Amino acid sequence: MISLRTTTFATISIRTHRAEPQSHGKVSCCKPNRTNPSLETRSPDQKSLAIARILMVMEPKQGASSPSTLMLTSGASGRINALFSLRAMTSLLMLIRAFVLMLLMPFRGRKRVVLVSGNGAEKSKDERSESNGASNRKVGPVVRVPATALQWRRTAASSVEQEVAARRAMAKKRVAQDDDETVVREFSIFTTPRGDALFTQSWRPVNVKIRGLVILLHGLNEHSGRYSDFAKKLNANGFNVYGMDWIGHGGSDGLHAYVNSLDDAVCDLKSFIGRVLAENPGLPCFCFGHSTGAAIILKAALDPKFEACISGVVLTSPAVGVQPSHPIYTILAPIVSLLLPRYQVGAANKKGLVVSRDPEALVAKYSDPLVYTGSIRVRTGYEILRIASYLQQNLRKLRVPFLVLHGTADRVTDPDASAKLYEEASATDKTIRLLEGHLHDLLFEPEPEREAIMKEIIEWLNCRVER
Q1: Strand pairing category for 429-435 and 11-18
Q2: Which residues are annotated as catalytic?
Q3: pTM for the model
Q4: Has residue 396 been placed in a domain?
Q5: Which residues constitute the domain of residue 422?
Q6: Is residue 270 part of a domain?
Q7: What is the pLDDT of residues 382-440, one digit of tens each?
Q8: How many domains does the chain fold into?
Q9: N or C: at which end does the chain have fewer Cβ atoms within 10 angstroms?
Q10: Interval 123-155: pLDDT, tens
Q11: What is the per-residue DSSP string for 305-364?
């Protein structure tokens, strides 16, 4: 164990384990993104007021042992424990009861079906027999579905499509407005095997020799565009970067922040990397993932075929340790997620967790329309619990080289779970850094910590490209 101190006197715990270099004969590819339409468009007074509000809620109250939380949702990191709080589950059970009663209502009466001819007259017995196939055929109960229900479904689907179109147009506009002459930034629409359209973007340096690829996967509720600054730093070091907005996020298809199955996101990542590798043969490929994005990468890396395609992964605040507040909710969660998958639990994000110590970064995040700031959806929360549970049971199977960074003050994902990942993974090349006092969004912490973290990641990648 080595103890270092940064310029802000924050202790960093570092553990590294690396076996002798081996040749694996792998190919690879990757790419990320980030955008911040935040303070630049505001007047100085509005900017000062916004930052002042955040500073007020971050300031400790008198007599309190810890700083108060922001009255905002935690964006890329919805709080899962509160999702299955007693109050939330009580309201959910009441909704389930109402839902069951609604399902039973169409069967409350029986009604004989009278077939009517084209001119409005009742058909004869022979005609009825011919229509039914037999004269003695019995007519069963009639399920009466209100026309308003069908109309509601059509309206809801149309609303989601309009929302997706608006988000995608905004994501495209941000790519087009990037006037950095040192980087070529482009977007494309990637169609998954399921037929969903995902928004992807790439950053390629103009006058730098390409040495490797980085695939970037954002966290819950955010989008790849938020990581544009980081992508450009990777460009300067000879990496092409590719970012993918996973389903329900950014400019991709799906209800905003709704994830029916994170297994779909895992499959989408595998397909996307296959396309990037085909476009960039012979280059080593790395993956970078934050929070839930890191969990998606970890599950994909457990697949030997995926492992053979990449040279390593970098994980910040991985969602490996996420547990419900009571064991009984592990039983209730799958039931509720089946009955009311899109239901938003207000208690989950009533008071969002502070995910960065940089006030301007928080303002930029929560003023970004592409960042979801509503209450977490039931199925989404359950999927995070499910993938975290799966990873906990399969950590020993992880063999790909990895670097994991986690803040000790992170209240969204568990830094102890990252330590467990380091201890149990069978990888021979693994490094962990526990950053004392850092919060969840490590790449959006204040300077100089932010720059130091990015530099550490780039140095780790450079070492493995030069082997």
Answers
A1: antiparallel
A2: 291, 410, 440
A3: 0.73
A4: yes
A5: 2-58+65-103+161-465
A6: yes
A7: 999 999 999 999 999 999 999 999 999 999 999 999 999 999 999 999 999 999 999 99
A8: 1
A9: N
A10: 444 544 445 554 455 555 555 555 555 565 667
A11: HHHTT-SEEEEES-TT----SSTHHHHHHHHHHHHSTT-B-GGGGSSPPP--S-HHHHHH
